[in-house]
Predict the structure.
Amino acid sequence: MIRIITIAIVFFFCLACKNQAELETIKQPPNVILIFTDDQGYRDVGVFGADDIPTPNLDKLASEGIKLSSFYSAQAVCSASRAGILTGCYPNRIGIHNAFMPNSHIGLNPKEITLAEMLKEKGFATGIFGKWHLGDAKEFLPTRHGFDEFYGIPYSNDMWPLHPQQGPVFDFGPLPLYQNETVIDTITDQTFLTTEITARSIDFIKRNKDHPFFLYVPHPQPHVPLFVSEKHKGKSQRGLYGDVIMEIDWSVGEILKTLKEHNLEENTIVIFTSDNGPWLAYGNHAGSALPFREGKGTAWEGGQREPFIIKYPRELKAGRLINEPLMAIDILPTIAEATDATLPNNIIDGKSAWSLLRGIEKKGPQEAYFFYYRINELHGVRYGKWKMYFPHNYRTMEGQIPGKDGQPGNYNYIDLEEVALYDLSKDLSETKNLAEDYPEVVLEINLLANEMRYRLGDSLMEIDGEETRLAGSIE
């Protein structure tokens, strides 16, 4: 009898421990992994239309997660786009415009709260492995913006002496490779970089598997110059560009495999997207945004509509397609809700899409999205199925000879002289201007635009915003 009682006590003790362990797991907030590529086109992933670049890992991620067909980067250029996804703000709200050059005197203001800082406050370990591009002065490095660890480059991988326009246009110094705040090398060959970024990302996961972590993997590729390791060279049907995408897909696969090996898959949010559309001037070294119009450096659909996949088995039903518009500014508040983190005290522009992703809501969180470019120029607005553009100057490769094998072609610059309105539900390529047919829609969007101009300004109309904040400065 005593033996039976002892066995029963041990059994119930073990059961209680198991239940407590399960309870602790449920209480633990999800890990967050944000994989962010550079200049990747919408059509450069299999599930988004690529039939000449195998991306089995990204395709599997989409089948096990959610694919968004109308996701937009925060702006069509490097620094501004990164500022938007990390702070939840339109980049011009926080004084970030265009792409910072090396030795810039400005950067992301330390007063702004990044995803890393928000999650670090909740006890997350935070790491970035890849490209930063929000200020290369020590005061602006990732370690000053909430990241425990940084390995990578401080700005774009073409900002080096081997740039094809070095001399006539640029005078770049060596490309530094950072470990936290120390330059550990200067890079002359980038073929190792995707592999090393992947290895360090995996190591970060393994070291932090027992508590929540935020891993940010902003790949320098497929921004030109293109580099790929020997293991993926010559593997795709789209030349070197396709090979680079295949290596990024491999990297995603290695990260997902690591999560599974350490039983982290169920409780990790994995996001894959890109900072802006393809750099069309580089021809066969650029991606594809088809069927969308134009590419990087424009507010047209090809400039900011990006592939987007999110997976979180514990909360998000797999295999779904969401067509509602979302923008990178919504990522921070969405992650805040998913992890029960505290939002920044500063005004932000993003809104949580967590209910949409969970299938509770059918509509996106925002009434409209605003497309700024250059120094605070409001070029367009997405409003439901409509996309409207205001008169502005934009660049195009249409009618131009594209670049080849790493050499850029020359853009033509065109003035859009009248308001243009497109129905994206029927006209993805933005070919038929319906402004004259739908004056009431033009009026509605103009009212929304004028409200945003009051808040954030519009240099095309010489309007200063009431709510903008300054970038950080070391001068």
In short: The CA atoms of residues 3 and 107 lie 70 Å apart. The two ends are 82 Å apart (CA to CA). Confidence is low (pLDDT under 50) at residues 16-25. The longest strand covers residues 31-37.
